[in-house]
Amino acid sequence: APVTFSYHTLFVYEKKLGEKSNFRQSLIMGTLGNIYHIRKMKWCFSNNFTSYIEVYLRLDGEKRQLPSPVFN
Fold this sequence. Notes:
There is one protein chain. This protein is mainly α. The chain has one domain (about 1-55). The protein is about 60% helix and about 0% strand. It contains four helices and no strands. The protein has helices at about 1-10, 15-20, 20-40, 45-55. The two termini are about 25 Å apart.
């Protein structure tokens, strides 16, 4: 349900969020980060995406600047 909520939020506010890519990324990463803390993400995401999120959401809370992911 959280991923569906994010999808609908992004769909409804696409024009407003299109201009604020940092806010959009924070919204998505916050939602996915909460899912990650509840259960491991491999239940619904690919290994490549899970690895990307694990690097981005470090245990010390510091976020790294990463290049855009390439998912196959």
